[in-house]
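Field reference: "sequence" (input) and "structure" (output). Example, Type II secretion system protein:
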Amino acid sequence: MLESWRKEGGFTLIELLVVIALIAIVMAISLPSYLRFVRLQELKLAREELHLALKEAQSNAKRDKLVWQVSFRNNPHPQYAVHQRLPSGSDLTGLNWQDLNRNILIIDGKNQNETTFYQYTRGVNKGIWRMQFNHHGHPNGQLGRITVGFKDSDLQNKRRPLRCVIVSTLLGAMRRSHEQTKKENGKYCY
C-alpha cells in the first residue's frame, strides 16, 4: 500500500529566524571584546618588534666589535632602523627604516615623557630617538625606554594601553613592560 503523504524534514522560517537572532546577539556581545583583543595584540607586536631590533643591534655590536645603534621615529609614521653608528651629524633619514603598525605611536616627551632614549633636538635628525650599544653589547650612553601606544588613545587617560621596552642596566639587560595605574618617576610604563 502506498502512503498518500510523506512527512518533510526541515526547519520552519520562525526557527531559522530565532537561530539567526541568537547568533546576532552573541556576536554583538563578543565583537567589542574581540576587537579590543586584536588592538592589544597589535600593540604587543609593535613592542616585540622594537625589542628584537634592540637585541639585534646589541648582538651585532658584540659580533662586529663596533658600536651599533637602533634609531626610532614617528615621522611620517612609527619606524625603526638598526645600523652601525654613523659619524656625528650624519643624516639618518636615508636609512632602511622598518615600519610599525600605522595605528601605533611612539609616546614621546610631549606625551607624558614615556620614551626616555636619547633624542636628537636639532638638524635633519631632529625628533629621532636612538639607543647605541658598544663593542661589549653594553648601552653606549644613557639607559632608557621606548614606549608605544595607540595613535587615537586619550593621552590623559591613566589606563590607556601602553607597552614598553626598557634597557635597564649598564650591562644591557632589557625587559618588556606595560601600563601601570600609578606613575613611577613620571612614567606609567615601568
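The longest helix spans residues 13-64.
The first strand starts at residue 68 and ends at 73.
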